[in-house]
Amino acid sequence: MEVVLTALLCFMLTAVVRILAFSHCVSKAGYTNLDGQCQVYCADGRCPDFCKCADGNASETCAKLDFGSNNSLAINETVKPGTPIFTIPIAGQERWSYTLGREGPVDGSVWNSLSRYLKLTRIGNRYEMIVDLTPDLEAIFQQYGIKLASLILLLTCERDGFLQKVSKVVLQILPVNEYAPEFFITPLNTKVPENTKVGTEVYRLGDHTMDLDVNPSTNELSSFAIWEYLADSKTDGRTYFEMADNKKGSIHVKAELDFELLHSLGAIRLHLNVSASDVHRITSFTTLTVDVQDVDDLPPGFYDASCQVPRKSCVVSYLARVPLRFQGQIDNIIPGAIQARDMDELNTPITYSLKPAQTETLENLKKFYINETTGSLFLISPFEEKNEVDLVIE
Hints:
Oligomer: single chain
CATH class of the largest domain: Mainly Beta
Radius of gyration: 47 Å
Strand content: 25-35%
Distance between the termini: 144 Å
Number of domains: 4
Largest sheet: 4 strands, mixed
CATH superfamily of the largest domain: Cadherins
Structural class: alpha+beta
CATH topology of the largest domain: Immunoglobulin-like
C-alpha cells in the first residue's frame, strides 16, 4: 500500500509541472480556430511548430513601473535632447515599446508627430526613455496650434511575443518663463478730446500687449501699472489719468481736461509711463503719449488794446458818437474797433450780428448794419433828432 501511494503522488507532481510548463499558447499564424488546439497542447506541456507558447516556468517577468500615486512625471519645456526621463530594468528577453495616448479634439497625425520628441531605447539590461527633441511649447503651438500641457505615455511590455502589460504614465511639460511682456508698438499713442467725461476709458493696454510664453494653465500677462514720468514732470499725465483696472490695463480719465488751460501750461501732450508684468513679475515699460484735442466748447470773446492775453475773455463795451444826419461807417468807436476771437484753439471763423437791447426799439436797430465778417459798424439811416441807442453785438 505504501508503494502505490508514493507512485500516485509522484504522478500528480509530474502532472502539475507539465501543466505549468507553458502559461499560454496561440496560433503562430494568428488563426483563432487553432488557438484552442494550441491551448490543449499547452496544457499538456507541448508546443507544436504551428503554435507560439509562453514559458510559464521562466523567471522573466515585466518590471513593475512605479511613478508615484499619480503615475505622473514632469520635465521642463527647455530640457535638452539626450536628457533621461526614466529607466525600466529588464531581467531577460522582455521588450518594451511606447505610443502616445490621444486626448482632446486633436488630429491623430499631430500625436504621431509629437511622439518624435521622446525615444525609448534599450541600453544593456535596461530601457531608457530620453528626450529626443526639446519640447518647446512655443514652437509646438506655432506649428500645431495646440497649447500642450502633458503627454500620455502608453508603455507596452511583451515577452515571447505575448502582450503582458500596458502601463500608463502622464508626462507633464512644464512651461518656462522665457519671454518678457511685449507691447505691439512702442511708444504708444492716443488722442483724447478735451470734453471727454471723467471716468471714461480712453485706452486699454491689454489690447496692445502680448507675452510669447505658452502657458496652458494661466494667462502669462498678469498686471499693468502707471508710474511717474521722470522725463518731464510738467507733462506727467497721472494728474488726469488713472489705471482703473490693472488686470486689463484699462486707463480712464481721472480729472477734467481743459485744452486751453493745458495749452497755457505747455502740456497739451501728456505722457504716461506704463508697464506690463507677467505672472513671474518680469516687467516691461513703455510710454503712452496722450494728445489732448481741442473742441469747440467756448464762445467767442471780444477784446481790445487793454485786453491782449490770448486766452483771456474780456468784458468789453463800446461807445460811439455821431452827428445828426450822419450816414456811413462809424469809425470813432471807443475803446477801439469791434473785434472778437475764437476762445478755442480751433480758430473757428467769427461772424458778427446786431440785436436791440431790452429797452431798444426795432425801428432804431434797423438804422444800423454790421459787416458779419469784419465787425465794421455802419449807420445806414440818419437820425434827425438827438438820440441814444443801445445795441447788442453778437
